[in-house]
Design goal:
The complex is a heterotrimer of chains A (304), B (222) and C (142). Chain A is α/β, with parallel strands linked by helices and 304 residues long. Chain A contains 11 helices and 8 strands. The two termini of chain A are 17 Å apart. Chain B is of the alpha/beta class and 222 residues long. Chain B is elongated, with a radius of gyration of 22 Å. Classes of the chains: A alpha/beta (304), B alpha/beta (222), C alpha/beta (142). The structure holds iron/sulfur cluster (2 copies).
Chain lengths: 304, 222, 142
């Protein structure tokens, strides 16, 4: 059983995924509206799991809403809020609902979020979660070795940040994630192409690119303010000075347009870059821009 | 050592306000070393409380005593006569000491004057840092001698996360990223290949997840 | 030493209360030869170094009825015990905060750096302290 995302990657076609954040509330219409805007323009849609530690509708539920609309979800799962018992149980539940792609993460620390007074869990880390899903999929057992009646077979992904420190170690960690079970990687937003390519080169030297599909993260900037925020405030982000200058160089009412342009150019270059299997569009609270970028990048229509 | 910090005066004052006389009981071991509850702090706190109550026109009799260790019954015995003469005991020991004292004096309220913060070290004068969570199964050998359980904000056994930047943790730019330290140390003694190892999930039963822990040494029992 | 009293000093002498001031001084810093100052009741406590002034000494001086407490330390860089004066300054800052919390007012406690034999400076400090006490009033605990 393969998912559409997996099929596209297997066939060597350039994949497109996009991120979609569930609402801060129980309104399913919000997720459906976002889904409708993305439908047809992406191969799969990532649903975040209480991203930046802000309490939102659960990823599993939001994924189920997308499924009903005929959109293939990638369920993101962080180890911050659930222990191994809850995580495994939710993986089985997700599978029973038809969810087949999963992205395993450790998650942003809760002190950044809406309820910094919360206790975190971190019973296991993202590496363990990858290994757990792999074990469930391949061996059909839970972490304890108990044989499951139906194995949740998932297409397993992980995140990697080529821009975090220590740089040389990022590739070692990528290797560890692949060994633990990751079959696709969605990266942190790429603005710093030279550094991204350096990371890819190191991965290639270690023979990792044959073992995993790399989907490069891209995020269009809406304003100069956002560019500066991303450069200075977001942990593990590298935004070159030239990008900020470009954003600042246009009048504010045309900044979004410039942001889209930069993004489209980045996508074009990524498409030409060896080892990049697709892009992952993270247009945070700006999901409506995704179709435009996909079209401008000549990635539309998507393969059936 | 166990590191602690004296509670704010206002909080302590409110805690002991119902009593006309009480004993401030210091501990001469860990909390003394971190300047939270030794003899000196007992004297200072007693004086400050006398002034604070005196200002309100309230007569309060405060007794002062510091014992070697409040986590050992042997030493608490010395406090028995003073404790029983008072309506309450304000203990400046760590949470363990406070409870030990309470168990010895079942009829007297025993109040905490210190916030017990962590197991740590004196990194430099005036700076105490956390180094251990008492997980009950030390794995420092796997992590080059740096503990990710107490020092990585996410307790990652296969770190670092994507937030490590310039050697600092994403959670607090003042805090070192434990994983950067682990890597640096392995590099320093040439064992970086260990970084490739997948470290399996931790068995938390020996840590706080297993319920209150007990350590039995039959050879020492009487 | 003969001093002529200024009008200000005369007015201070006429205040409603005769403030009690306790001075902790490093014997290297000042040599207090002014115990019988007419404007206030002075109590001088000689210390081998200002850094030996423990927090509890400062608080107990207030318990004993002092309206103000002063610490006289050697000038920066001139401490015989390397940085005793700096440590004293930090301790005073801590106790000032405590006095604020207690409700006595941190303003009742101050530390000054003085060179040995500089009587004018000491006199000036006392004058300032007395002026400050105009606003603070007597120690409410005494
Ligand atoms: S591994 Fe456990 S016992 Fe060892 S330092 Fe860390 S928390 Fe303490
Ligand atoms: S930045 Fe380093 S210390 Fe902080 S959570 Fe990530 S790996 Fe742990």
């Amino acid at each position: 059983m393969t998912t559409r995302l997996e099929q596209i990657l297997l066939s060597g076609q350039f994949a497109v995924t996009a991120e979609c954040g569930p609402p801060r509330g129980a309104n399913a219409e919000v997720i459906k509206k976002k889904g409708a805007a993305l439908k047809g323009y992406t191969d799969a849609v990532n649903v975040t799991d209480n991203q930046t530690a802000i309490v939102r509708m659960s990823s599993v539920a939001a994924c189920a809403h997308l499924l009903q609309m005929g959109i293939e979800p990638v369920m993101q799962m962080v180890t911050r809020d659930r222990n191994r018992i809850a995580l495994q149980s939710d993986i089985m539940g997700a599978y029973s609902l038809g969810i087949r792609n999963i992205l395993c993460l450790s998650g942003d620390h809760q002190t950044f979020g809406s309820q910094p007074d919360a206790r975190n869990v971190y019973d296991i880390d993202s590496m363990h979660l990858l290994n757990t899903v792999k074990k469930m999929s391949d061996e059909g057992t839970d972490m304890s070795g108990y044989k499951l009646n139906v194995a949740p077979e998932m297409f397993i992904g992980a995140a990697e940040n080529p821009f975090a420190d220590p740089f040389e170690y990022r590739v070692i960690r990528l290797a560890k994630k692949i060994a633990a079970g990751a079959r696709f990687i969605q990266t942190q937003c790429v603005y710093d192409l030279p550094r991204f390519k350096e990371w890819l080169k190191m991965a290639e030297e270690r023979g990792l690119l044959e073992k995993v599909y790399i989907l490069a993260g891209v995020t269009p900037m809406k304003s100069t303010r956002m560019a500066k925020y991303m450069a200075n405030k977001v942990a593990g982000m590298s935004v070159p000075e030239a990008v900020i200058k470009r954003m600042a160089g246009v009048p504010e009412d045309r900044a979004a347009e410039e942001g889209i342009k930069i993004c489209t150019e980045t996508v074009a270059e990524l498409r030409e870059t060896k080892g990049v299997a697709g892009i992952h569009l993270m247009a945070i609270e700006w999901e409506s821009v995704v179709p435009e970028i996909v079209e401008k990048s000549k990635l539309y229509p998507r393969p059936a | 050592m166990i590191v602690g910090e004296q509670k704010p005066l206002e909080e302590i004052k409110a805690m002991v306000a119902p009593y006309d006389n009480f004993l401030i009981l210091g501990c001469g071991t860990c909390v003394k070393t971190c300047f939270a509850g030794g003899e000196e702090e007992v004297a200072t706190l007693a004086s400050a409380l006398r002034l604070a109550f005196g200002k309100d026109g309230k007569k309060t009799k405060i007794s002062e005593l510091t014992v070697e260790r409040q986590c050992e019954g042997e030493f608490i015995r010395q406090a028995a006569s003073l404790a029983t003469q008072n309506q309450a005991v304000l203990s400046l020991a760590c949470g363990a000491g406070v409870q030990m004292v309470a168990s010895r004096f079942p009829k007297i309220p025993v109040l905490p004057g210190v916030n017990t913060t962590f197991i740590g070290i004196l990194e430099q004068p005036g700076l105490f840092t956390e180094k251990c969570l008492g997980c009950g199964n030390c794995v420092l050998d796997v992590f080059s001698g740096i503990c990710p359980i107490s020092r990585c904000s996410k307790k990652l056994l296969n770190g670092p996360c994507g937030g490590s930047k310039n050697g600092k943790c994403e959670v607090n730019p003042e805090t070192d990223c434990a994983w950067q330290l682990i890597i640096d140390r392995y590099q320093a003694f040439g064992e970086t290949e260990k970084l490739y190892n997948y470290v399996p999930p931790k068995d938390w039963r020996t840590a706080d997840a297993g319920g209150p822990r007990k350590l039995v040494r039959e050879d020492l029992m009487v | 030493m003969v001093t002529t009293r200024t009008a200000e000093e005369v007015s201070l002498a006429k205040r409603a209360f005769r403030p009690k001031i306790t001075v902790f001084h490093c014997f290297n810093a000042a040599d207090l030869a002014f115990e019988n100052n007419g404007d206030c009741e002075l109590k001088a406590v000689k210390m081998p170094c200002s850094s030996m002034t423990r927090e509890v000494f400062l608080l107990r001086a207030f318990e004993a009825g002092a309206d103000a407490v002063l610490v006289l330390a050697c000038p920066e860089g001139a401490c015989r015990h390397v940085s005793g004066n700096l440590r004293a300054a930090r301790r005073v800052a801590r106790v000032k905060k405590m006095l604020d919390e207690i409700g006595l007012g941190g303003g009742r406690l101050n530390i000054f750096n003085v060179t040995q034999g500089d009587d004018t400076a000491v006199e000036h400090i006392l004058k300032e302290t007395l002026a400050g006490l105009e606003a603070l009033g007597t120690n409410p605990v005494s």
